[in-house]
Specification:
Layout (H helix, E strand, L loop, with lengths): L4 H10 L1 E4 L5 H19 L9 H8 L2 H10 L5 H6 L2 H11 L3 E4 L4 E4 L13 H5 L6 E6 L10 E3 L13 E3 L3 E3 L9 E3 L6 E5 L4 E3 L8 E10 L11 E4 L1
Antiparallel strand pairs: 1-9, 2-11, 2-12, 3-11, 4-9, 4-11, 5-8, 5-10, 6-7
Amino acid sequence: MRLNESQKSDYFRRGYLLLKRAIPEQSLDILETQFLSLVKDWGGREFTSAQSPELAEFLLANRELERKLYEGIRQFPWLEEFSLQPEITNPIKEILGEELGLMSKIPFRIDLPGVTRELAVWHQDYKYVLGNEEIVTAYITLQDTPYIRGCLMVMPESHKLGAFHHDTQVLGKRHFPSNIFNREVRYVEMERGDLLLFNALLLHSLGLNLSSTCMLTVQSRYSRLNAPTDPSMGQVIEIN
């Protein structure tokens, strides 16, 4: 996929861009199958769909397994392979240029119904990713993600305001900037296969999952190769 001039203009003006049905169904199916294989290997129970309410109930009853999956899936090459597919990297090259790298620390979120432990309150990725302010996050959901399942919320054009001090702590370890709440908020409902790109300075928050199923998402981050990145985000993998 190549971005047209209107799409590129929207990204730089608003700080985010939603590309509909950009991710091939096959690559989503492969990643879901790999996740379910870990559930079977580590949890001893087989599920045919990541959108089964029974899977959500099983993980809610086995929170240590949820934690193991959350961290353990990163030891396999799956997320890196998924994040290097041209359907994701080509649009980002249009934004950042051809000399592009993928940060090897790739979060795979498992947001269970009603659970706030890992809830992402209002923040800028730059607070945690550091490095440089032009880093692009590619946010992909493995299922349809309407409001009730906890879709992402964004404050359009907030990336133009620079880095905020995240001065208020909630949920034991999360921080948000307290002086941002006079701005427009948009709910970004997504369908399976959509690709959301946003700037590291864009203010955004995750909604609480109010459904009966898991919300699974991948957040891959990309930087210009000649721009600084923080070591906590892992090796930067050059994209050809």
